[in-house]
Amino acid sequence: MTDLPQDEPVFKRLALIGVGNIGSSIARAVRQAGNGAAHLAAFDRDPAVRARLLELGIVDSVHETAAEAVTGADGVVLCAPVGAYAAIMSEIAPHLEQGAVLTDIGSVKLAVVRDVAPLVPEGVHFVPGHPVAGTEKSGPDAGFAELFRGRFWLLTPEEGVDPTATAKVEALWSRVGAIVEVMDAAYHDKVLALTSHLPHLIAYTIVGTAFDVEEQERQDVIRFSAGGFRDFTRIAGSDPTMWRDIFLNNKEAVLEMLQRFTEDLTALQRQIRWGEGDKLYEFFERTREVRRSVVEAHQEGSNPWGPDANKEDADSEGGKPE
Amino acid sequence: MTDLPQDEPVFKRLALIGVGNIGSSIARAVRQAGNGAAHLAAFDRDPAVRARLLELGIVDSVHETAAEAVTGADGVVLCAPVGAYAAIMSEIAPHLEQGAVLTDIGSVKLAVVRDVAPLVPEGVHFVPGHPVAGTEKSGPDAGFAELFRGRFWLLTPEEGVDPTATAKVEALWSRVGAIVEVMDAAYHDKVLALTSHLPHLIAYTIVGTAFDVEEQERQDVIRFSAGGFRDFTRIAGSDPTMWRDIFLNNKEAVLEMLQRFTEDLTALQRQIRWGEGDKLYEFFERTREVRRSVVEAHQEGSNPWGPDANKEDADSEGGKPE
């Protein structure tokens, strides 16, 4: 995957800008890997988070400004919500070192390239990235070192980006256990709109719908929210800022997939209304096949919940016959 | 909850009609409880399942016909898909003992009362029920004794049903660890349409939508199906027959909730199209509150996955920041 010596850290000083769930998981994972970075510098705009980082002791230095954090760094990771990237870039751009490698963890990539690329100084290498991992929890306490193990980490470098820069980012994330893949930004956004953005939008919607009912019913929706609905509430418990930014920044792909979804749902609705049992059965049988291929494609090794596994699990029930 | 002596089984002979995931979990749970039934009789229309039941040894007798299974039984549980209830009833009705208690595990209750009540002989007591528990797996091998522990088991007896009969069913399911609640059938169907039926319909739809794409993309949808989408595929992996019957038998409530959902989704779609970030944030913040109340309402004790906990968990990620 890379010819960088395994016993040497990929970066001398790696700066993390914005340290929430993902940022703190990166800090913990890089620490644990040992050969990711010699020094971990961190900045978060929230003073409470900066204070907490000092208590947690998962980074080597915490800084009052993003500019200070990136000064002297040969590696920089934007871990803030994508909506904040432009503002962050205009602040740190003048302070980025020549030859430094800049990457991010944003869930959308075309918009990131659009916002960030124009602000990257000559001599700094930008390699957009996206770890397909995480939990619905937010904040530096929610992170854990095992989050990226066996998970995909997608990189979408543009044409002409220095291959050495891409190789370094690839090496860094490989060393925290991720499976790194390089792909086109537009394709990334289209596939993720299907596998992540649309599902989250639907989950947010159904949770909202279920609660626009009278009080008594709402109480029982909570009490009897086993199975399907509870899985949805977990998904809908994700960070509002992050998801607002995702939907606003992957608008085209999300709206296209949403249109397809609505057409399909309308067809099913009609089948239910007209009691077309055979068509319903046929459709459910087909989606069951999909489930099989997904399970086959993801072997159990990579436990996305890390330490929270059993705890989280007690709150998840899959497609229950309720 | 009941004044039946704890050291005596609730039923002398309990007959299970249709032994899939739920039926076999009931068999295992009643066996484990010890004081649920002195004898467990079972029938399944599938010869392979009957053979498997003999191998598993989780019931005391396996019968070639439902009529034979219910003969001499003072307790009968319909564990087949609700669509099969009418046919089963017309076969077993003549063989039901006087004073026998009849219950079921159907996920819809109004339709069950509609189909079953008219076929219940004089002197037989019908107490419709629904365990809010289960997994997406099917068949007798998928069941486990702990499935009902700490889970709700909803009973919807009609006016005038012998309270002793209801008390017996209540005692039986309490002894396998369930929290038994008595409620109105129409209300049950309305609440479950929100907490279970609509979520399942949505999950089936989105999984179908994601796969109506060209091959390359489909492969990547599978490979990158972490988080949201993978949770949906699990839900959509549920038994097609059972779900077809649920949607056909809770049509009114499901269509009403589906209408509300579509309106809410259309509103969000418009907010995305017009880039109304504040409204999106506000909505996501609200659903997050819902998540909190759901988590508070369900403490971790009741692990729905029982033995499969970790295995299943490796395939669940909640609302991930992808």
SSE map:
2 copies of one chain form a homodimer.
Chain A: E1 11-17, H1 21-33, E2 37-43, H2 47-56, E3 61-63, H3 66-70, E4 75-78, H4 85-92, E5 101-104, H5 110-116, E6 125-127, E7 129-131, E8 152-155, H6 163-175, E9 179-182, H7 185-211, H8 215-223, H9 228-235, H10 240-249, H11 251-273, H12 277-297, H13 309-313
Parallel strand pairs in A: 1-2, 1-4, 2-3, 4-5, 5-6, 8-9
Antiparallel strand pairs in A: 7-8
Helix pairs in contact in A: 7-9, 7-11
What descriptive keywords fit this protein?
homodimer; 322 residues; alpha/beta; Rossmann fold; 6-phosphogluconate dehydrogenase C-terminal fold; six-stranded parallel sheet; three-stranded mixed sheet; globular
Largest sheet of chain A: 6 strands, parallel
Number of helical segments with 4 or more residues of chain A: 13
Q: Strand order, main sheet of chain A: write it out.
A: 3-2-1-4-5-6
Main structural class of chain A: alpha/beta
Q: Gyration radius of chain A, to the nearest Å?
A: 21 Å
